[in-house]
Amino acid sequence: MQDEIYSIYHLTIDPANFDAFKSLVDMIVEATSKEEDTTTYEYVVNADRTVVHIVERYRTSGLLPHVQQTFSPFAERFLALAKIDRLFVYGETTPEIRAVLDGFGAEYLTPFAGFTR
């Protein structure tokens, strides 16, 4: 997990808003797909469309540009449709990253053993 940051967002949504949320997410995913330092960006939903998780993985240098440039234009609509209940951030963060992610209620975890292939 060297020079990488993973994050998992736990969101709740009203199932009546799922179609609007999905349309917005499709735009966010399209914009995010152009970021070179974003290596994983996936949304998953439960069967009743009330819980969504976002799984993200960045080279450390790519996280802030994603949040501040790519996501920012969509943030108001996104947060009107979904509530961020939890955010787990894995990896070595910087004070600048924490200053931004603290606003989402981030909980930080640092690696101490393991590997990625």
Radius of gyration: 14 Å
Helix % is: 25-40%
List the uncertain runs.
Answer: none
What string gives the helices and strands in order? EHEEHHEHE
Mean pLDDT score, rounded? 96
Find the count of extended strands (DSSP E, 2+ residues). Answer: 5
Spatial ordering of strands, largest sheet: 2-3-1-4-5
Separation of termini? 10 Å
Structure annotation, total helices: 4
Shape: globular
Sheet with the most strands?
5 strands, mixed
- Strand-pairing-aware structural class: alpha+beta
**Residue share in β-strands:** 35-45%
Polypeptide structure, described:
By secondary structure, the protein is α+β, with helices and mostly antiparallel strands. Helices cover 35% and strands 35% of the residues. The chain contains four helices and five strands, in the order βαββααβαβ. A hairpin with a 5-residue loop joins strand 2 and strand 3. It starts with a strand and ends in an 8-residue tail after the last strand.
Defining key terms:
five-stranded mixed sheet; 35% helix; 4 helices; 35% strand; alpha+beta
